[in-house]
Amino acid sequence: MRFFSDNAAAVCPEVMAALAAANSLDTAYDGDRWSQRLDTVFSELFETQVTALWVATGTAANALALAALCPPWGSVVCHRDAHIQNDECGAPEFYTHGAKLLLGDGKGAKLTPDIVHGLIDTIRNDVHQVQPAAISITNATEYGLVYTPDEVGALGSLARERGLGLHMDGARFANAIVRLGCSVADVTWKAGVDALSFGFAKNGGMSAEVLVFFGDKHRQTTLYRRKRAGHLLSKGRFMAAQVLAMLDNDVWLRNARAANDAATRLAAAAGDRLVLPVEANEVFLRVGADEARSLRDQGFDFYDWGVGEARLVTSWDSDHGAVDRLAAAIAAL
Amino acid sequence: MRFFSDNAAAVCPEVMAALAAANSLDTAYDGDRWSQRLDTVFSELFETQVTALWVATGTAANALALAALCPPWGSVVCHRDAHIQNDECGAPEFYTHGAKLLLGDGKGAKLTPDIVHGLIDTIRNDVHQVQPAAISITNATEYGLVYTPDEVGALGSLARERGLGLHMDGARFANAIVRLGCSVADVTWKAGVDALSFGFAKNGGMSAEVLVFFGDKHRQTTLYRRKRAGHLLSKGRFMAAQVLAMLDNDVWLRNARAANDAATRLAAAAGDRLVLPVEANEVFLRVGADEARSLRDQGFDFYDWGVGEARLVTSWDSDHGAVDRLAAAIAAL
Amino acid sequence: MRFFSDNAAAVCPEVMAALAAANSLDTAYDGDRWSQRLDTVFSELFETQVTALWVATGTAANALALAALCPPWGSVVCHRDAHIQNDECGAPEFYTHGAKLLLGDGKGAKLTPDIVHGLIDTIRNDVHQVQPAAISITNATEYGLVYTPDEVGALGSLARERGLGLHMDGARFANAIVRLGCSVADVTWKAGVDALSFGFAKNGGMSAEVLVFFGDKHRQTTLYRRKRAGHLLSKGRFMAAQVLAMLDNDVWLRNARAANDAATRLAAAAGDRLVLPVEANEVFLRVGADEARSLRDQGFDFYDWGVGEARLVTSWDSDHGAVDRLAAAIAAL
Amino acid sequence: MRFFSDNAAAVCPEVMAALAAANSLDTAYDGDRWSQRLDTVFSELFETQVTALWVATGTAANALALAALCPPWGSVVCHRDAHIQNDECGAPEFYTHGAKLLLGDGKGAKLTPDIVHGLIDTIRNDVHQVQPAAISITNATEYGLVYTPDEVGALGSLARERGLGLHMDGARFANAIVRLGCSVADVTWKAGVDALSFGFAKNGGMSAEVLVFFGDKHRQTTLYRRKRAGHLLSKGRFMAAQVLAMLDNDVWLRNARAANDAATRLAAAAGDRLVLPVEANEVFLRVGADEARSLRDQGFDFYDWGVGEARLVTSWDSDHGAVDRLAAAIAAL
């Protein structure tokens, strides 16, 4: 019973069916009829004109987004616990050709305008110092919290005021939207976001994420960067088909809702053990070493998170019975 | 009736079945049981210990290989018509952090020791000049010719003698092996090859290629480079499963044989129109503009190749009837 | 008696005096009163508003210029014998983060519009191919020929038409100007040049070159790149002072004239042995191995240039007697 | 009366004389007789075989050193206030092709083994995380403190144990040595230092620093990197001559002693206002805004350092009278 990562989840049936349906002769790269629909479909979803490009990983989406927003001599403000800092082996530095990440603290991996000010206000505007160029936030965060449209908007205002780009790492964007109940526009471009890494793989996809730019300013250069990074797959139709299948009939929201609901059930059982509120599909628990062992002995698999904490991640396909058993086991600790 | 690229071909049924079979909960990234088998399976295939890493594109495989073999201040000798020079938007330069490609001429996109000597022998061994570090050849070449084990061996000897790495771009390696009838060992490491980009996507796969290093010297650094480039997919089991399915029962050879046979049938019809011998799955024809239009009017889709030439590419799933009709149409020109 | 490089020449007395005169307390980096005059002084010289930045080497000037004109996924057209290709260990690739150089042929290391067309017209405008972004020419060339304003203008027109930047490597710009007798404006921005590496070190300076951009479009980003490359010297006043001293009273022209005159005297002695016309301060001679040895035995130091040729370079301080003796020795061969 | 930077100081007479003495025809780049002596002279000084390369700036020396010690996917532990982090516009990231700096806190910009452990011990040894590769310390620090041989040795032991390189930014190395009274060997290679940026420019040089590697492991690659970065000056003899002149007769120590003595006199006057002990040539004072204004009104020039602090930097040529007047003015505040 695996609760260690939504990356370990299966691929949802609609995606598998879409792969089969796309398996006919078509044009290579992104000239096929599926890929060619992405801009339109995502523009409708976001209620504005967007550039929507598939890539195979969230790391590639994030790094391409940051390369568009930040020059080699710039810096990107992010949280100290951000995926781009801790889990991408320096992909942002590789793609930006050497930009810096400026690391902020903040509860639950969330940035606030105050934190950003604290990082950038002391930077002298001279050539000796790397200049701030962008802010990157993760929604839902690496700790399972969500940014509301207002919270994003406050960062968006600061970004505009200071001439910074705003990137949102949405590896779990669907989980955030389900929680927020807002439109996808509200929490992105309407709040000042310039680029969104829209995650599908953790949410039931196989190997496709979508990099969304609001507007087309960064389209042309990003197309070159994507190719140059080896991320223009030759049979791109299988990338686009995954994504389109998940947008059809709101499969992406259905999947995320299932994951969030499972996490909520675990949270209810956890009570005071919760390190943070559960707002998406991640549950952080205080557990002693013996307790963690006990849970593992009962067949539950998860990550230890530092000392005395455990991270449980639910997914679109989390087995109801397993979730119930885990909830009971937590309650019984 | 599409003959413009084997990238446009469908995915073969064994791969589709393998994707379905791999669709269960497992570990993320490359810790799953499919990915974990790659080294073993490829080591058996190549009769020596290899490092076998999946990546999503041939461009990524090539660029990672070259980054392993060539420092930023080095150069890679390749043919002027090589894919790494013409069709990867500078991926080798991106991954190597700015190495140069030294461009040789040679019939059918093939390098010879003489050509390599002509490029590197005049380079002074001082810090003012970028130093040669590797040779990259494509087998089968971009013009559908194959390098024999002896031909590769001659380049391998030169490489060893001069301290250069030897990389083989095997986007159509299967087609070359079918043609050569030799073991995969004969034309790679036994002939001095250090790294092979082993193509599967053009040959019936969906989105997986394998970067093979002979030995493990470059394993650790390449694992970092792969992650850093955003090429460590989160659900890597679907990458490995594709490849394993194609190695099982020699599906990869069966597929390539079908493609080669189709090309051979077209070649027989083409007679004097052939620009080059047909040794794999590409046919280059001399055709006038009117003739090209006539073929297109009959429903055949292909690339013009410079002035007065056309490129026809067959694939594992080239329709027999379509091939026969095209052969007849060519003969009737 | 050294004729192998103008890099080996001494520093002219005006520069030495200027270094002494600048040796007082002042502001660091480029905030000092010498550095602050550069834009003004060079704008007057060029009869237009320019950005003038000192750097310590021609390689840095060239690489910074190309980084401003060419993105990482772009290419720079240059001659196969260009210094940026052969003698800078890949600095352009380092500073541009991996652009390509496209190599043209042409007598005496000169490009023509036809040669440029031959290199760029076959490049498809798609993301698979590195797109041409700039042309770089050297004036005087690596073979001692000069581009006239008309010749530069023809390339400038092509550049404008195709949206390319135009860079001039002027390591021996002074020698070219002396030969041409035109204004510096005529052969640069009036002819379409965007950036000039204006050389001083070979012409009697110690360690300063000036990167000139016509206009200020690239000023801000280049200031960051220069610092980031470690080329913002802490005592920049000694850089600016060298250059200002050479512009004062046209010392730069006087020095170049002396070098050109010495080369002309050698050329007159060489007669049919000349490989190319002598238009600046380099003389390429056909000499047999025995003849070269004979010259060396007489105390003349120079480079062999391929097989059967020798390169003689004169400088601002070439000793008159030594030049006469060499001229006589050549005539006597 | 300038106390804002030792970069603003004049060039000492021995260096000026050496430049004049080197002003004769010689070989270009670093083939001249001055440059060729560097390895020997520095090996004697350090009592071990070293590689000694001139560069024009401390930024270049630091960045080249770090590029030798840290791969693109590695990180360098340094203090949050380190010059490499705050004052080099990302040069380390540029030269390393995108490594990270890990920022530690510590009084007076000094790292300790505990601080380093705190930064690296939580890094998982997997490909998702950038791996620590080096430690960089500054001696004397940016806050004018010195590391003793024992303190360096403790970091050196940790570095060896964890397979990290150890770099010392010695922009004010001379000031540290004067304070420590130890041999240069004691505080460098004998304490585990792999690379030293040995500063001369702040200490009376004009434009030369020396990058010292202990041993020759990094020589060859660094020669290529230096050239590729545009830091191989064509008239390198003027670089080497500066340095040799400062080593002759211990001019470098004499100069540093003068600077340190001046700082000590200011410190004595400052009493309780001192933010930190004065161990080299920098004095950090607590001063109110009115007090700072008063000092400036009396003609003293210095940097404000955050809120309520001022930085005073003395140099080899600090005027005795000016120092005395400033000391009196501080005492009178």
UniProtKB/TrEMBL annotation, chains A, B, C, D:
Q: Name one GO biological process term.
A: amino acid metabolic process
Xref: Pfam families: Beta_elim_lyase
Its taxonomic path starts at:
Bacteria, Pseudomonadati, Pseudomonadota, Alphaproteobacteria, Sphingomonadales
The protein's GO terms of the molecular function aspect are: lyase activity
Q: Gene3D superfamilies annotated for this entry? A: Aspartate Aminotransferase, domain 1, Type I PLP-dependent aspartate aminotransferase-like (Major domain)
Note the subunit structure. Homotetramer.
Q: Which domain of life is it from?
A: Bacteria
Provide the alphabetized UniProt keywords. Pyridoxal phosphate
Cofactor(s) in the UniProt record: pyridoxal 5'-phosphate
Q: Which family does it belong to?
A: Belongs to the threonine aldolase family.
InterPro entries associated with the record:
ArAA_b-elim_lyase/Thr_aldolase, PyrdxlP-dep_Trfase, PyrdxlP-dep_Trfase_major, PyrdxlP-dep_Trfase_small
Residues annotated as domain Aromatic amino acid beta-eliminating lyase/threonine aldolase: 3-284
Identify this protein by name: Low specificity L-threonine aldolase
